[in-house]
Amino acid sequence: MDYGRFKYEQTKKLQEAKKKQTTFQVKEIKVRPKTDTHDLEIKIGHIKKFIGKKDKVKVTVVFRGREITLTQKGRELLAKIAEDTGEYAVVEQDSRMEGRIMHMILAPK
Length: 109
Known about the structure:
single chain, 109 residues, alpha+beta, Translation Initiation Factor IF3, four-stranded mixed sheet, 3 helices, 4 strands, 43% helix, 28% strand
């Protein structure tokens, strides 16, 4: 067998395997604990668009200054986002607090 032909067939197999792969990105949406309802609806619309493109979404609540005392409000905010996006997204990683940042990850159903 010709070595050049062998290498050619190998690259063709790799290209076919690459075509069938599914790739995704992790998009990030940042909110604050005092984000208003209309702004939150806009963010949920962005989440829906990202999930529609089969990307995962990391929703981050950033606490600045004295807002660190509002961790319960941050959890409620993430729970509301998870509830509103429940029909097309599933919570892959529940809310976690890391320093002044609380986040969760949503994935397409």
